[in-house]
Amino acid sequence: MNTVKTVRELRAAVARARSEGKQIGLVPTMGNLHSGHAALVTTAAQQADFVVASIFVNPLQFGANEDLDTYPRTLAADQETLLQAGCNLLFAPSDEEMYPNGMTGLTRVTAAQLSNELCGSRRPGHFDGVTTVVSKLFNMVQPDLAIFGQKDYQQLAVIRAMVNDLNIPVQIIGEPTVRAEDGLALSSRNGYLSDEQRQMAPSLYRHLNEIVQAIKAGARDYPELIRHHLALIESEGFRPDYLEIRQAQTLLPATIDDRDVVILVAAFLGSTRLIDNIHLNLEGSF
Ligand code: PAF
Questions:
Q1: In Å, how far are 162, 218, 280 from 3, measured between CA atoms?
Q2: Which of 218, 239, 245, 271 is the most buried (most CB within 10 A)?
């Protein structure tokens, strides 16, 4: 696996692969890779002939008081993970390479309206930063397919909307969330948790599962179900940002008539913000 740091080298390597008739898969990441990222690369390697991963901690998607400076940078370990997972080329650019004219006054891609909800309303500008950098990566690599984790459910929806709205010729694949044995969704930010917080963290997934079971068992008062679990989550020591039942495709608030829903949660444990979700398709269930 080669690592390149410039757009010129990236384009040259991808052009070589394409000239050999290879299908190109792209896995955009911010590094500090775990088994969830490895699963993205493995899927890309199954679906494409040449896998490009990118590692770039994108300043454009971090808010002023967020963890841009402390976000873990672990390039050597990441290269090993990517190699083992079947990656062919790593693109690891500097900020200057990605934003040679700086970020002020930059042309940006405004994310679709669904980005203003949920995480977007708590992290203003975040999804515009994501769509801008992802569309730059798409233009640099011009992949046939790109893989994103379902843990970032809203991000995946925002990227799908961008690709549809802007007619970008790339197939977007959502990869199921990889979890620790106790159910905690793997995330680079889990490393911020103290031992005690790490013990508490899987409780979010337990609440999501309990909501799923309640809906499957016939609970139809969604606001009450949410109020009940929000209160429990808070009483356990989390500071919830939101807990919501939404339509799986549009992310609009779900009603009891919706069959395809997603239950999403975001909550702080100390200063660490955790997110998780469960997609629930009730077609044929009631
Ligand atoms: O999910 C992430 O790691 C990032 O938001 C992404 C898609 C790599 C864009 O910077």
A1: 28, 52, 39
A2: 245
Count of CA atoms in the C-beta half-sphere (13 A) of 59: 13
CA of 68 to the centre of ligand 1 (A): 13
Task: For residue 28, report the distance from its CA to the centre of ligand 1, in Å.
Answer: 6
Q: Can you say whether residue 183 is alpha, beta or left, with left for phi > 0 and alpha for psi between -120 and 50 degrees?
A: left
pLDDT at 219 over 90: yes
200/269 Cα distance (integer angstroms): 9
Q: pLDDT value at position 283? A: 86
CB 111 within 8 A of CB 120: yes
Protein residue with least CA distance to atom 9, ligand 1: 130
Task: List, in sequence order, every beta strand (DSSP E) within the chain.
Answer: 2-4, 24-29, 50-55, 89-91, 145-149, 171-175, 239-247, 260-269, 272-281
Cα of 56 vs centre of ligand 1, distance in Å, is 8
Half-sphere exposure of 148 (CA within 13 A, CB side): 17
Pocket test for ligand 1, best of 26, 27, 30 (most atoms within 8 A of CB): 30
Q: Is the pLDDT of residue 170 over 60?
A: yes
Whether the predicted model's global pTM rises above the 0.90 cut: yes
Tell me, yes or no, if 37 is annotated catalytic. yes
Residue nearest to atom 1 of ligand 1 (CA): 29
Average pLDDT over residues 149-176: 98
Q: 38: how many CB neighbours lie within 10 A of its CB? A: 19
Residues 29-80 pLDDT 10s = 999 999 999 999 999 999 999 999 999 999 999 999 999 999 999 999 999 9
Crossing angle of helices 153-165 and 126-141, in 10° steps, is: 60
